[in-house]
Write a structure and sequence with these properties.
Elements lengths: L1 E5 L2 E3 L3 E3 L4 E3 L2 E4 L10 E3 L2 E5 L17 H15 L9 E6 L1 E2 L2 H16 L5 E5 L2 E9 L4 H4 L3 H36 L4 H10 L18 H53 L14 H58 L7 H31 L7 E3 L1 H19 L2 E8 L4 E3 L1 H18 L3 E8 L3 E8 L30 H11 L3 E6 L5 E8 L2 H7 L1
Helix pairs in contact: 4-6, 6-7, 7-8, 9-10, 10-11
Length: 542
Amino acid sequence: MIKKLRVAVDHGNRNMKTCNFVFTTGLTEQDKKPARGEKYLKYQGKYYTLSEKRIPYQRDKTQDSRNRFWILTLFAIAMELEQKSQIQPEDVIQVELPIGLPPKHFAELCERYERYFKGDGKVQELCFNDKVYHLCIQNGVSMEKIRNLSLKKTMVLYTILSLIVTFFLSVSIIEIAGQIQEEVWWKYVDQDEYYQAMNDRNENFEVVVPRPNQSKMSRMDWHISETCDFLRTYGVLLFSFAGCGIAVSLFYKNKLKRPIQELKMASQMIAEEDLDFHMAYENEDEMGMLCREFERMRGQLEENNRRLWQMIEDERVLRAAIAHDIRSPLAIMRGYQEMLLEFVPEDMLDQEKMMEMLRGGMLQIERMNHFIDSMRKMTKLEERELNCSVVDIRQLINQIEALAEVVVEKSEKNFTVTTVRESEILTADEEIIMEVADNLLANAFRYANQEVRLKLTVTPQYLKMSIRDDGIGFQENIDRVTQAFYHENPQDDLKHFGMGMYISRIYCERHGGKLLIKNVADGGAEVEAVFKNYVLEEQQQK
């Protein structure tokens, strides 16, 4: 059964106080159960007892590295629970926990205290004097609702409360001023005449203390009388202005000061190109929304910076790879040319050897042509835009099978296709899908031993193309596989420049999906290309 209990706790510097108990803010921790008769608390495998040696003063008790004030709070709750005979071991107690804070520290520490003592809102188990309790700490007298009010509502609330307080204060001040003024005037009244008037009065007349003539009053009494007159005449107006001033001051302190400071700090750090910070102001008011938007902008700037540095690094790697892949065939062709220049005039090469060199040179030229084609594809990646249309799934499968048949005939390896249709409609860029399929199939057949398997899954959300081979799998860091110019063995194929996986990844991401790579447990590798199915968006637009 769930039961509710309200336990007010005052975390004093010397004593902890609840409605029924007062004890020193001292705590002893030990691994073994204390001696019989000594009150103890068991929490998370540790035993705790109260001590007369108080914990040194800490203004912010949430910063205690040993969480002693949290344990002391549990002590306070457990001692109050011990007085409740109706609580059973199987009960879950929802504890409403108001926490006392000094007024001057309230604005600064309130949120920290709430987070610290509320915890994650989960049920906590503790044992107090051999009795087990299950607690769920909730917000107590919380400022949550007030903090999350809009700026307009908060200002109105502060103004109304301030005016109410100042009104009653002004009424009291006016009453006191009247009494003081009468006491001053009484000094200058003919008392015999006054009492005679009191005796002769009837219900139609009221006897009041008359205002003395200024010439009869002392200078001090006259000033006091005039001050009282001023307070009685303008007191309400003055205190109303004071109440409005207090309302504005509280409004600024509690609703504007902190977010403005955080925004100022954030602006300065951004100006200094330092994005390693987080805005902690998370109220649900307008300033909280502004801070969240600012935090979102900071996160976007940080992500853009990361991408920019990644692009710079990729460009550096790309330049190095281009230089390497161009230098290699040029070096080979230069070697052939030097041999021809040296040996042909001396008639030291037979025709067969010469033809071998010429064929090798042509092969390197062809390799460079393929390299240039790859570079041309890379330059078009950023310019390539999606051109989505309704795709015939059966026709798409036939086209992929036709691509594979060309490679199958050369490699003499087995190829199987499996299709799972959860949707009969596919809206996508067919050209991009075929380009990725071509790259992934070529890579799979290059490294497969005997078999390549393709599985196509079509759902209303995505198209998933999974290609699996029975080769040795990826031998290096999988994260490197989709980088430009990656190849585990550059000599395995002169036409292979390590661009296929890179281009496939870019195309998948451009199509709202991703490229997933993994080694399979029983050998081989599996590459999964995911493309977003835009059929839902198309239907929504219609």
